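Task card 7
Instruction: Convert sequence to structure tokens.
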Amino acid sequence: MSVLDNWDSWKNFLGDRLHHAQNEGMNNEVIQGLAYQIGGYLANQVDAKNEQERVLADLWSVASPEEQHAIANMMVKLVQNNGTSN
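Output:
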């Protein structure tokens, strides 16, 4: 089963990656930039596996670049309290 198949698994996966990046000293600006790049890749290259991912992909597709950055930043905030290393 892929982490993309389940919304909670996906949030935990992202939370683990976020905590790892922070522990390695990556600053928030870099993390937010990566989140934006990953969001674009997922929206354009990966089929949504659940309803939540479909909503994010649909929002991303109609958002301006500034709005896409906001979506990416909100995803970072959303997963801050997720993951096994939380």
